[in-house]
Amino acid sequence: MKVLNRLKPVGENPRYRLRIVVYGAALLMTCCQFFFTQLVYIPSLLHAEPWRLWTGHWVHLGAWHWGLNAIALVLLPEIFFQASSKIFLFLWFALPVLISLLFFFFMPTLSLYAGLSGVLHGLYLVMALNAITSKNANERLMGWIVVLGLCLKVGWEFYSGNSQTAKLIGAPVILQAHQYGAGLGFILWLFILVWKRMRHSSL
Question: Is residue 93 part of a domain?
Fold first, then answer.
């Protein structure tokens, strides 16, 4: 019976659903790379081309930059088995625009931005915090490991003011994107948590 319970149809398995959505997001990110100039975040063009608030996070400065973020993205469903594809989609579209708005208002001298790393910090934090509340012990353990790792990474970057990733991608890393992504991820996780509880209480 235990084996049969694990053999759920693809449509009923959250891991497979998340895989499909994440692979679709990775494909979208790859296609966007062919239109880098039209999609990169440039604040001076936002009034005429507001889509850059989103798409600036889906394009990258080169193959290494794209590859590192693509790997981190497709690992999500392999790390968080029970993560929700609906929550992923919500974050996939909410985090880019919110991070971009923080850039616009608090970093007015930033003339260009590209990369998914800020969004990834938010995605991983939300998925990890959700995993901590799971009934599955392995999920909870993985959630705590990721939360601790993210806190140490963001804290070290804030303290040291640099990132080792810059050497790999051959360009400066906007560390504020990581901080904004993690901070917004925590706020959005609280929003999701409250929304879930309100929904359950109304049933």
Answer: yes
Cβ 42 vs Cβ 59: under 8 Å? no
CATH code, domain with 66: 1.20.1540.10
pLDDT tens for residues 64-99? 999 999 999 999 999 998 899 999 999 999 999 999
Query: What average pLDDT does the structure give for the chain?
Result: 92
Distance CA 18, CA 119 (A): 17
* 148 pLDDT above the threshold of 80: yes
In this structure, is residue 148 part of a structural domain? yes
pTM for the model: 0.91
Which range marks the domain in which residue 90 is found? Answer: 2-195
Number of domains present in the structure of the chain: 1
Residues sharing a CB contact under 8 Å with residue 98, sequence separation 6 or more, in sequence order: 180, 184
Burial 186-197 (b: 16+ CB within 10 A, else e): eebbeebeeeee
Mean pLDDT of 4-31: 81
Distance of CA 82 to the CA centre of its chain: 16
Per-residue CA distances from 117 to 12, 59, 70, 176 (Å): 30, 11, 10, 10
Angle at 179 between CA 193 and CA 36, to 5 degrees: 105
Q: Is 139 within 8 Å of 80 (Cβ atoms)? A: yes
- Please give the average per-residue pLDDT across 161-183, as a whole number: 86
Does a structural domain hold residue 200? no
107 located within any domain: yes
